[in-house]
Amino acid sequence: MSRRPDPSRRSEQSRQAILAAAADLCVEVGFAATTIEAIAARAGVGKQTIYRWWPSKAAVLLEQMQRVREASADFPDTGDLRADLLAQTTALEGLLATNDGAIWRGLLIAAQSDDVAADGVRALLERAVTDAKQRLAKAQASGELRADADLDMVVEIIYGPLYHAWLLRVRPLPPGYMKEILTLVFDGLKPATGGDAR
Amino acid sequence: MSRRPDPSRRSEQSRQAILAAAADLCVEVGFAATTIEAIAARAGVGKQTIYRWWPSKAAVLLEQMQRVREASADFPDTGDLRADLLAQTTALEGLLATNDGAIWRGLLIAAQSDDVAADGVRALLERAVTDAKQRLAKAQASGELRADADLDMVVEIIYGPLYHAWLLRVRPLPPGYMKEILTLVFDGLKPATGGDAR
Fold first, then answer.
1. Which residues bind DNA (chains A, B) (predicted)?
2. Where are the alpha helices (DSSP H) in A111-195?
């Protein structure tokens, strides 16, 4: 066995420390006030170490979200669409409330003015939308979801309320939020005795 | 008649020029790159003139959005909920695509790190939500909307898809977007022949 330190292992430790420091700062002071200087100080590395791997703070945070995405479960598929959507959206609601949610918020802000963040956010969102649409298409084929619904719109109807409440911070989400949203969007907003029956 | 210039009129002209310059810059270069210096240069005033009235660029943009809000129509109430929601959301969709939409996007970003922007955005959103809930409550009373639906959730189901698509820029909105969204959320995502009938 060699006693020399493994440079790739040390690199990965530094990368982990930088990612963790960026995440903590984003939670503590917000994306706007997070600086490369502060990330370097918190991680115990020099600024140049960060710039060797990433061009900007947005790029650091993007790698953190990509790692979260890689580690997350596939879209659930038990054969019960409502149960799978509830499981997936409840997991997302939980994630949005963690440090990773603060990072995701920072990236969505950065995406408005930073091309690296915009491309990375777009890729993450497109992959999430594609996964959801695949599950929804299977449910259309099995008759659990109306066949004439546009799947991009179904994604927006299911995830839009959660993002609306979370991004705009209109109110804290009540317990059981997504369960009730799913009931309303699947049953529809028309009165049960109204609509066609009138 | 006095030939002296009316100072209050000149002030209002300067204010208008500053508001217009801030709006144009927000559209052209985005909120992050809009500076008080650039607003002053574009409006043909000194920086101190801006700082006499507003503490920050976010405060300038907030006044512009408050003026847009004051000038906008009341929530429509023709007695037909679906028609009124379509009219109101179509007007909002149109506004989001204009310069005022770019300002609103800038304010939503600023609200994440600037307390003045956060308070102003919260007040504007709360007023919009209150107006929508008043109209929805009337529709519940008249039997056009299911009586057991939580009105905050109904607002999020109707406006969430539009904000999700607009803020996250996942895709350009297709023509007739809100009409189809309203059909889906009122009729529900369950298959017409499925659900209770199975």
1. 35-54
2. 115-142, 151-168, 177-187
